[in-house]
């Protein structure tokens, strides 16, 4: 039975080239968040190393093979504090495949990995004179949307650029998510214009909670990829329930899951929608159902 009301912490961490230092800083921030009463802690996209495609491979960890100091730390802290952690993301070395993924693990209060989300939509942008960035040169996209039942409700996960795709959030709502967590690392170019807008849109369109968590901005960074920051918690009516600035900080907000039902009752968008004119197809459920039909037909024939 999940908790209806609880505190969520967004740890907007400073990230450096020192992986051990990053892990130690994240550990301290999670302990502090738990001490402040958080039952759910969210970390940023790529918090164990800088978000730079050239150096990402050298920091990659084999999560399935157990060779992941970052995830081991999250498991240990989650179990010792009895909290759920949406563990931001770390570069993951696919076991045996040579592929690299941008991967978020959700850890339960028993320290076990409950879900693993590999970023579905790789970020690619080219605005001459402003920003050029292409994750697909280095990373492989994941294949599975992620929804997981936890002690603090049904959580869906997207990583940064995944937030740009409203269909994914609609799918998550249709699968019963209460909260979508988007560990992210928006940049100065698109962050200022769109960060706030997109998290509110995903929350309001689907009448659920949205939590985002970014690394802190390093104003002295020489990287052309400057982080925007502004990790936030948005409620199902678009309310900003907690928000950080751009510096290193942990912000704590309150999630009251009963708000979802209240908002959907006052404004029943699902009933008002025109399913007779448009609808989103859950491709995976459809093909699973088609597989059952096909297997049924084969059984009947055989
Ligand atoms: O979609 C955007 O504008 C930013 C996305 C991004 O920074 C990312 O996916 O890491």
From TrEMBL:
KW Protein biosynthesis (keyword) present: no
Keyword Nucleotidyltransferase: no
SUPFAM superfamilies: Carbon-nitrogen hydrolase
Domain annotation CN hydrolase: ranges: 6-257
Keywords: Hydrolase
Molecular-function GO terms, alphabetical: omega-amidase activity
BP-aspect Gene Ontology terms: asparagine metabolic process; glutamine metabolic process; oxaloacetate metabolic process
CDD domains: nit (cd07572)
Pfam family, one: CN_hydrolase
Protein name stated in the entry: CN hydrolase domain-containing protein
């Amino acid at each position: 039975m999940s908790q209806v009301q609880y505190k969520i912490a967004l740890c907007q961490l400073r990230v450096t080239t020192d992986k051990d230092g990053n892990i130690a800083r994240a550990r301290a921030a999670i302990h502090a968040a738990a001490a402040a009463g958080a039952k759910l802690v969210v970390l940023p996209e790529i918090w164990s190393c800088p978000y730079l495609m050239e150096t990402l491979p050298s920091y990659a960890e084999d999560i399935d093979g157990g060779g992941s100091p970052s995830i081991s730390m999250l498991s240990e802290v989650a179990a010792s504090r009895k909290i759920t952690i949406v563990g931001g993301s770390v570069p993951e070395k696919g076991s045996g495949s040579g592929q690299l993924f941008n991967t978020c693990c959700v850890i339960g209060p028993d320290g076990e990995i409950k879900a693993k989300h590999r970023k579905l939509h790789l970020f690619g942008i080219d605005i001459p004179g402003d920003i050029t960035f292409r994750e697909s040169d280095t990373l492989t996209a994941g294949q599975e949307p992620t929804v997981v039942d936890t002690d603090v409700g049904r959580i869906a996960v997207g990583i940064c650029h995944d937030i740009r795709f409203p269909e994914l959030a609609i799918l998550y709502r249709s699968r019963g998510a209460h909260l979508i967590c988007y560990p992210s690392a928006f940049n100065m170019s698109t962050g200022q214009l769109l960060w706030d807008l997109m998290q509110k849109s995903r929350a309001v369109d689907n009448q659920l909670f949205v939590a985002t968590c970014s690394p802190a901005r390093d104003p002295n960074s020489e990287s052309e990829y400057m982080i925007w920051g502004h990790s936030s918690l948005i409620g199902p009516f678009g309310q900003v329930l907690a928000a950080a600035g751009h510096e290193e900080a942990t912000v704590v907000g309150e999630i009251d899951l009963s708000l979802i039902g209240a908002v959907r009752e006052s404004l029943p968008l699902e009933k008002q929608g025109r399913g007779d004119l448009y609808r989103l197809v859950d491709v995976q459920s459809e093909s699973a159902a088609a597989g059952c039909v096909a297997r049924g037909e084969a059984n009947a024939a055989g």
